[in-house]
Amino acid sequence: MDKPIGIIDSGIGGLTVLKEAEKQLPNERFIYLGDNLRCPYGSRESSEIVTFTREMINYLLQYDVKLIVIACNTATALALEYLAQEVPVPMLGVVYPGSLAATKQTTNGHIGVIGTVATINSEIYKRTIQSIDPAVRIYSLACPAFVPIIESGVVDGKELETIVEAELMPLKRWELDTLILGCTHFPLIKDIIRESVGNDITLIDSGAETARKLKKIVLKYGIQNTNKRSGAISSFKTTGDVSQFQKIANLWLDKRVWDIEKVDLSQRDVKDISF
Known about the structure:
The chain is α/β, with parallel strands linked by helices. The protein has two domains: 5-93 and 208-262, Rossmann fold (3-Layer(aba) Sandwich); 95-206, Rossmann fold. The chain has helices at 15-24, 46-61, 73-83, 95-105, 117-122, 124-132, 146-151, 158-168, 190-197, 206-221, 242-253, and strands at 5-9, 29-34, 67-70, 91-92, 110-115, 137-142, 178-181, 202-205, 233-238, 260-262. The strands form two sheets. Strands 4-3-1-2-9-10 form a six-stranded parallel sheet, with helices on both faces. It has a four-stranded parallel sheet with strand order 6-5-7-8. The longest helix has 16 residues, at 46-61. It is globular, with a radius of gyration of 18 Å. Residues 268-275 have low confidence and may be disordered.
């Protein structure tokens, strides 16, 4: 079935899912949609997050996508279950795959989760992890500073290192052995997070785990593309600045990204967010 797979995110974070998905499913076509104009989602009201997620899904449905990945933890937490009954194709979020991987990895039963304010306040990781293993203790920490900085194109440097160290300071008192990066933006600064938390804590990339789960679902439903390609083909849509999106996409995907289109998802009068 040579229909594309849709991937949506509040911004560029979902590129961490796409990068792994291209490796796992090299014969597939992907359409990536980032709502960079209205990012970050993590500080917004639940109703807005549901509305914005619905707009992204409806936009991709016009391309006859066969499956949609909500590559945003905040949208997964607040919109996936609500919208699943409306959408005529399978949808996959990023919370369960990361939660499952963490429960398999931990040895002392102390799992940390970092994410946006909305994701952490939803307690979706706590509920999901405890449904898998009730004995695990979950420690959650909101890191609201990270996404705006990453969206601005800053993914390294001393200033960012200082901010990350300050944001993650509370983790040091919890004796964690496993930490879920509960926002798909966060793997873009994974090396800095690693430097902050040390080598004794295993970092779980929810985006990479989701891409591996995506492959299993595609095969389970028998909707894989059987036409052989030399590699996955991806096109990109953004509601924000194309050049800024291209800059980060080129950096993270390790290739030149050309097929980028600026799109308008709604008639609302919204201003571009700059940091």
